[in-house]
Design brief:
By secondary structure, the protein is an alpha/beta fold. It has 6 helices and 4 strands. It has a 4-stranded parallel beta sheet with strand order 2-1-3-4, sandwiched between helices. The termini are far apart. It is found in: Cytoplasm.
Length: about 140
């Protein structure tokens, strides 16, 4: 099973972890890491590396980060390899699809699904209603 690590500024990642547990239940091989005001990048990198190594059971680790170009994502990018993938722009639809599919999909398939689900979850409801697309 692909392991998942959430990384973010402040407590956003732990909030996503809590919200996903409310919807799909508690998950194994799943952790969050916060980059706080008093954190430094070396400590953040060490935490990500240590957790990625501890969680990986051979199927790989998918890191979901809050913001492309932010310190959490830039630090996580240093871990990217065949066994560690990084997807930015984390949102709840993305996370839920990742969690319910990580036992059956490969790391690459899961990274692709995260990008697709994340984008599909962004909708302007007013425009959708005006266009009559209520499917």
């Amino acid at each position: 099973m692909v392991s998942v690590i959430l990384v973010s500024h402040a407590s956003l990642a732990s909030g996503f972890l809590d919200a996903s547990a409310m919807i799909v239940g508690p998950q194994s091989q799943f952790e969050s890491i916060s980059f706080d005001h008093d954190s430094n990048l070396d400590t953040l990198f060490d935490s990500m590396w240590t957790r990625a190594q501890a969680l990986d059971d051979g199927d790989g680790v998918l890191i979901l980060a809050d913001l492309l170009g932010g310190s959490p994502a830039n630090t996580a990018a240093k871990l990217v390899s065949e066994q560690v993938r990084l997807v930015t722009g984390m949102n709840l639809p993305m996370l839920l699809d990742v969690l319910v599919n990580r036992q059956t999909k490969s790391l690459s398939e899961l990274a692709r699904l995260a990008v697709e689900s994340g984008a599909a979850g962004v909708i302007d409801i007013y425009t959708m209603l005006q266009e009559g697309d209520v499917s």
